[in-house]
Amino acid sequence: MTMNSNASQANHHSFILTGIPGMPDKNAWMAFPLGFLYTLTLLGNGTILVVIKVDESLHEPMYYFLSILALTDISLSMSTLPSMLSIFWFNAPEIPFNACITQMFFIHGFGVVESGVLVSMAFDRFVAIRDPLRYASVLTHGIIGKIGITVLIRAICVVFPVPFLIKRLPFCHSNVLSHSYCLHQDAMRLACASTRINSLYGLIIVIFTLGLDALIILFSYVLILKTVLGIASRDERLKALNTCLSHICAVLLFYIPLIGVTMIHRFGKHLSPVVHTLMANIYLLLPPVLNPIVYSVKTKQIRRRIINMFQRKMNWT
Q1: Which residue from 270, 73, 91, 101 is spatially nearest to 181, judged by alpha carbons?
Q2: How far is CA 135 from CA 224, 239, 250, in A?
Q3: How far apart are CA 192 and CA 239, in angstroms?
Q4: What are phi and psi of 140, to 5 degrees?
Q5: DSSP secondary structure, 110-121, as one string
Q6: pTM for the full model?
Q7: Residue-wise pLDDT tens digits, 231-290
Q8: If you compute the radius of gyration of the chain from its CA atoms, what whole number of angstroms results?
Q9: CB 273 within 8 A of CB 180
Q10: Which CATH number fits the domain 2-316, given the four candidates 1.20.1070.10, 3.40.30.10, 3.50.50.60, 3.40.50.720?
Q11: Where are the domains of the chain?
């Protein structure tokens, strides 16, 4: 009876988020680097969105998908921003239980959305290289809109059970989380009841969404490579492959940290808490910061439009 009472209270109480493990006095030193990274994320992805919106020559399927990716990266960053600011800027690590669950839903949800967008972009590259003459007619505005809605609905349906799976658990142990934001696997380990269902559902999500997406992307590039090797001209082959470089970088930026975080959570329990925190922050902060930089550097059309935009601003001033 006491256990149930304590669990009920804990379920409606709060969690304590962790800044730099074992070094809470150093949290203030992280405030400015994190602020810089969030600013860079907003500026970079915001610039991509503005450039694509303003320049009509970029109103093509590839750039529409890039816009969706930029919006997803901004949304993912905004999901972690409140708790990061509360810890590193205001030294307020406590987060209400329901707020933690809400943040958890958005972080995992936008993670699944980003994976789905990367699959869509792989399909876009496949169509562009395999059948360039029908590219615009296959990926019409309507089709792109339907793909975007499908990706979003899939993420909502997949992540929707997570808050309820966490809320049913009794939390009668420590309420200190190991990260500066709420993750399902992190909160789950604090429960004082069996978490087998949560673990199983988390594994199913990883295999049938993120894992399946990775396989589809890999298969798409096998088909792309097969098509490229069938092109007679060496210059045309290089040109076709060059259009995929930015997407390949975005895929690596998303999946390598994700695999690292997953492996550390499963098999790296003996590692220092600093390693866990570092990998978790890299997983959520690195792709939104670097994706716009990669696309700006690797995509000639985007790079040229950004340079022109800044040159115009300089001339006006």
Answers
A1: 101
A2: 14, 16, 22
A3: 57
A4: -75, 170
A5: HHHHHHHHHHHH
A6: 0.91
A7: 878 888 888 888 899 999 999 999 998 888 877 777 767 777 777 778 888 888 899 999
A8: 22
A9: no
A10: 1.20.1070.10
A11: 2-316
